[in-house]
Structure formats: C-alpha cells, structure tokens
Amino acid sequence: MSKTLNLIKANASNPKVWLVAGITVAGIIVVAETRRRRKKAMIIKREDFGAFMERFELIPFPQPPPPAAKLPLSGFTFAIKDIFDVKGHATGFGNPDWQRTHEVADKTAVVVTALLKNGAKCVGKTVMDELAFGITGENKHYGTPTNPNMPSNVPGGSSSGSAVAVAAELVDFALGTDTIGCVRVPASFCGVLGFRPSHGAVSTIGVLPNSQSLDAIGWFACDPSILHRVGNVLLQLKAVEPRRGRHLVFADDLFELSKVPKQKTVHVISKAVEKLSGYQLPKHVNFCLFIASNVPSLKGFCQHSTNLQNGISALQALSSAMVSLQRYEFKTNHEEWLKDVKPRLGPEVSRCVLAAINNTYENIKSLYKVRTEMRAAMQSLLKDDGILVIPTIADPPLKLKKGSSTEFHDRACALLSVASMSGCCQVSVPLGEHDGCPISVSFVTYHGADKFLLDTVLDMYASLQEQVSIASNSAPLPDLNGNMDASELLKEKGNAAFKGKQWNKAVNYYTEAIKLNGTNATYYNNRAAAYLELGCFQQAEEDCNKAISFDKKNVKAYLRRGTARDSLLCYKEALEDFKHALVLEPQNKVANLAEKRLRKLVS
C-alpha cells in the first residue's frame, strides 16, 4: 500500500494517475456493495425459504365489541398464491410478462376478503409455477421455493410458495389453487396438510383461471384444527355436531402405484381407526375396474392397444381426459394474450403451453361427459358415509433442476385425476417419512361432503400420528426356510390353482412354498405371474426382483417384471427389462413388441 502511495506522490501532477486511482476506488466500492446486497438477499431468502415474491400486510377487519364472540381466525397469519387479486397490486400469475401487461387489481379476491373479515392477517404473495402450469413448483423468473424438509428436491407445485411458507412455519395457513394437483402435490412433498374442496364450493371471483372446470381454491396448514377453522370460514359451514359414522374404502390397486410400503400407509390408517368410535370395518376395492364399469365415456380416451378392464388403463384414460380438458380451457382463456405478448416461459411450462395452444380439440362434449359420469360414480361408490383412501402421489419429490419425466407426470396425474375429474373434495395428510422422503395419503369423499371430510381429519389425526410413530419403529417379518419336498408339492398345487384361474389360491400355495424354501427363483416367479393376474403389480415386481437375484438368466422373470413396471407406469425401467429379456432370448415376440412400444413412449 505504501508503494502505491509513493507512486501517486511521485506522479501527483499527472492527471491520468488520478483518473486510474479514481476508477480503481470506485470499482472496489461497487464490488463491495454488490457483495453486500447479494449477502443480504441470501439472508432474506434463507429467512423465507424463497416462498414470497411480494411482502405486504392486509390488516384484518376490526374485532366486534363485547359481548360478540371473538373472530374465528383472530391472531392467525396467512399468505396467498400470486394468482389472487389484491386491490392496488398487479396479480403476476407467476410470470413477469403477465404482471407487466396487466393493470393493478381494483378489488381484492372474495376468498381473501372473507379471511380478513374473520380476523386473519395476510402477509404477502407467494411464488408459483408460471400460469399455474406444472406440479414441480419450479419458477425460472422468481426462483424455486426451498422445500424445508428436502432442500435439494422440488417443493411441488403449482402452489409451491404457499406450501413452503406453511411448512417453514412462516404463516399459520396459506391459500393456493388446485387444478390437476397444485395443492395436493406440494402438500405431500412439503409434509403438510393440503385441502382441495369440492369444485365450486369456494368462490373463485378475483382469481385468475387456468381451467375453470377443474380449478378449486385450496389451503395448507400444519395443524388440523387450523385447516378445519379455515374450512368453516371459506365453505360457510354451520357449527353442528360432527358426523361419527364413517366407512373407509381402500383403493388397493392405486396403492400398487406407490413405492412406499403398505405397512407405513394402509396398515397405519387401519390401526388408527381401530381405536376410534364410529368407524365401520374398512372395505377394499379395485378402483380402476370400478370406474371402467361406471364411467363408460372413458372408452374414448383409452389407448388403442389397451383394454379398460386391463389394470391401470382406466385411470390412464381418466388422466388423459383431465389433461385434455385443462389444455382446452387454458387455450380458450389465454391464447390471445400468449400470441400477442409471446411471454418468456420456463422450458417445462413452455412445453405445456405449446401443447395446449397447438392442439385441435374434437368431441369436447365427451370431456364434460366423463366429468359428469365420474362424479356420479364416486357418489355411487361412497354413498353417504364412505371415504376413499388413496396415495396422494406415486413418487417422491424430484431433484431440483432435473425436470419431470413423462413417467413421473403420468404416474402423478393418474392419482390426481380422481378428485379433479369428479369434483370431489380431497385432503392430503402427512404420515411421516420413508427413506428420508415425506409420506402422505389422501382421503377423498363425494362432492359437497367437505365438512364431513374436515371433521374426519380432525377426528383421526392424533391417532394417525401415533400409529406413524409405531410403524416407523417396526421391522418387517423375515422369510422362513424349510423342507424341499414339501415346498415342491406346494408349488405343484399352486400351478394347478393357477391353471384353474384361482389366482388367490395360487398365491397362497406359492407363499407357503416360499416359507419352506426362500431361495427358489421359480416359486417367486410363479407367484409373480399370479399377482399380475390379480393386478397386484408392486408385489409382482418384488417377486421378480427376488427371482432375478437367484437366477440372473430367468427370462420369464424379466418379462413379468417388465409387465408389472409397465402397468405401474414406470416406462424406463420396464423398457430395460424387456431389453434384457431380448439379450437372453432374441426371438422373444412379447419382449420385442413391448420394447418397440415403450421405446416410442419414452422418447
């Protein structure tokens, strides 16, 4: 430093020296200020997990004087997705070009005003997927909110910021919207409660539409009593004694899509309701077969190569109808703006928007017919006291910036289409963790039974969490090994039952054989075949894994595992199985046809 000063003194009369010195000092100041601002921004982002895009305060309406009762939401804070109008603020729809090209709102959304009237304070708007398109929660322009439970993974969307704000305990509850899962997915990924009400039950005045036939106002909370209170306000429910008669209906085939062991989902719920009064014995259904028989219009959305009675294909058809309906209505709502403005969009959203805009839609009436039939089918299944139990989503949260695959999207939409296309109410409930990822299940009941569902969650939540704790400390039972001759006899009995199409009996015989000899690949392979016939694809996959571990060249095991994975919509893994089968048996026609079909699907 002293050398620099001496140099300046020696050349003090030279103006160029002073110019260089001035520029250097200015540069140092600019760099220091930039670093300071970046550090401050990082601190702010860490504080709010990137959940908020705009902070402000909307003060609640004044508390009425005594003897009037205290407002039901007094003292609670909430945040709202950037899709709700607030007077004096431009609604951004998750995209800066939308915000730039629209005027500030002259009124506040009806639903926000209702919360303010009941004592809650709004503290800002949250980040969302652009144009409410997407279920990962990523946003190219405003950044992706940080999932408090899994910082390296996506928070889920499109109501990502609202879910994160609740999970990080920045607010007591938050509002979102749900079109094809935009509340349910982030609730599941962030480990909080998420409620999608019956379609049309909560006013959407002052809320930007994505697809009005599917859009519903939803909300998040960590505490079931807060979820219940918000529901009472928004649904304008009357305070009456809760209904006690309840009948859980487990969709066994839909739990086949989930990678979480049933010990941590189905078993937990079954044990929880055993200790509660007013619950009938649970019922188990094959949901896909039920809707295939009761929603006839789905035949028009089934792939030409599949049959509605074949496994999960009915749900794939329902999902296809849902996506087509969303795209059709989105195009009707926003095509003109998109063509005029040509907004900058993230790659995933851009793909969805282009698909919506470029598609031509034929037989629109059939989309609405599926919706009507689906609502009637759900009412028929659940009657007045039924609650359908399904996984909220099939897969754990994706890694950040990885992008969602066709497989991830198809498996998610298959489950999410149930409530979206029927208009039924659904609540996603956290059930602890599996392999470090949040687990959730969903309860769905018929259209208009929102209070019944909210009361149910409030009633069973404590018992569920108690069973979650027990299940997390339980170990699976070990396999038993035994006598070879007896196991072979049981295998033959299983084969006879299989030929007689007595699939359950075949499974029982093969299971007994496995107990006696747990290292025989054939026993697992044969049981996998019976499981496939029953539509128990996850069990079939597990048995094939066992068979392959004992016999690496077992072609039938690869074929059956490929079939199971294909039925579970795990296209890439299924493709690898059929490829492996072709390596072992190049002329195998089944493997050849499946490999060609899946290669097209994956590409």
UniProtKB/TrEMBL annotation:
> Where do the TPR repeats lie?
487-520, 521-554, 555-588
Instruction: Name the domain of life.
Output: Eukaryota
Pfam families named among the record's database cross-references: Amidase, TPR_1
Please name the InterPro entries in this protein's record.
Amidase_dom (IPR023631), AS_sf (IPR036928), TPR-like_helical_dom_sf (IPR011990), TPR_rpt (IPR019734)
For this protein, the parts annotated as crossing the membrane are 15-32
Q: Give the keywords, sorted.
A: Membrane, TPR repeat, Transmembrane, Transmembrane helix
User: SMART domains per the record?
Assistant: TPR
**Domain named Amidase: which ranges?**
69-221, 338-454
State the protein's name. Outer envelope protein 64, mitochondrial
Which source organism does the UniProt entry give?
Gossypium hirsutum
Chain's gene name: LOC107887442
